[in-house]
# Entry
Amino acid sequence: MGETLRLLGLSLRPRQWTKNLILLAPLVFSRHLFEMDRALRAAAAFGVFCLLSGGIYILNDVRDIERDRLHPVKARRPLASGALSPRLAWRFAVLLLLGALALAFWLDLGFALAALAYVALHIAYALWIKAIAILDIFAIAGGFVLRAVAGGEAVAVPLSPWFFICTMLLALFLGLSKRRHELLVLEGLAAEHRASLAMYTPLLLDQMIALVTAATIVTYALYTLAPETIARLHTDALKYTVPVALYGIFRYLYLVYQKGEGGNPETLLLADRPLLAAILLYGAMVLWILYR
# Structure
């Protein structure tokens, strides 16, 4: 029993739960971080999405067992390696998703609807969208946007259009970089592992990454200088975070193109020390600017 629970825990992919930190962004940028009630609701929302994402990961792994066995890293996962029963994992995932959605409806209706949309999107992605080039990347980005929307709903903070666009562009950037890594690492087996990879080429992905990178940088810079941003935050000092954000994006591009990384963004963001330092510096600057 203990070993089964351990394998189920690994299948939840807790290392990838860092993606759910985007739920906390609306709380931070709305300057309500130190309001206890909202902070607790944001923490609860983060926990619910960790359960939801974990359940979805298991369902994806059950469906993709054969394809994952072709991948040098995914083949070591509990389901792909044969260490965990697919039937047991599937039942556990369904119960987990139902329980997490029940908690979401208890927390807030708007938050629960965003959580339900997140689950529906990922089920559609697993069953259909992941095989369609370009649309699969937008589905990944949509998951990040829905996380941000859910975070805003949980603390009763509407998302600004700028925040919405920046989140979508950054998610597209990460998703395209991941597809490029998969295409190059898997080589001839890429199409067997993921059908949409047969419709990509390194050149096409490079062009899309360049376009999205430029759009992300320009959009964030405009956001920091927008009159509505300055009026809401009562300062224009957010513009000083632009160089740090630029360095973070350039460092990530360096790791993707020079080091062949990008397959696991959530791990890379924490494993590379210069990139982690940039993230921590950016976070410290934002907190100082908004709450000093």
In short: The chain has a mean pLDDT of 88. DSSP finds 14 helices and no strands in the chain. The two ends are 50 Å apart (CA to CA). The longest helix spans residues 36-63.
